[in-house]
Amino acid sequence: MYILILFDTKSGRTKDLAYLIAKGVDSYASHGITARLRCVAKVSAVCEAVEADIKDSGTPYVDIEDIQNCNGLALGSPTYFGNMSSHMKYFLEQTVPIWINGSLCDKPACVFTSSNSMHGGHESTLLSMMLPLMHHGMVMLGLPYFETNLRKTQTGGTPYGVSHYAHSDAISEDEKELAVFIGKRLAKTALKLN
Known about the structure:
The protein has one domain: Rossmann fold (3-Layer(aba) Sandwich). The protein contains seven helices and six strands, in the order βαβαβααβαβαβα. The protein is of the alpha/beta class. The model has no long low-confidence stretch (mean pLDDT 91). The N and C termini lie close together (9 Å). Strands 1, 2, 3, 4, 5 and 6 form a six-stranded parallel β-sheet that branches. Helix content is 38%, strand content 17%.
């Protein structure tokens, strides 16, 4: 069993959150579930420009089998005008065949984001990423208010999911705790639903 942690990143902060979520998921490895980190390929406006099928280094690119066979999903993207990146949206648009066969139905999912400004659209980005997952029939998990770091954070974090406000390069301690928490919650829920 694995939780797919799928992300796009520009400055590296969304990737940092992905690795923290993976840490939370992997804390349940003794129960038979682990994290699988994948990123989306960049989309070019130049039709002849394509990404290599296999990256030279870093997180591997996602393929349809990664998402089709996962037991849960954490989806992350930088915030662009209150929405997910075009790279993430392009990948999600390629999932129509697994939407039709219901491969993701009743599996848990969460979303996460990073923005360079306090009012960059964290929450609307999280909501925009939820929409295709809801069409897939996934069970959306947010951050409940009993998680104390959500109540005290002065940086990122919302009931809709983990977020990072990039006022500095570093992920805040509250943001770190929230990311690990949602990873644990995702793994625990996937085990219960399986």
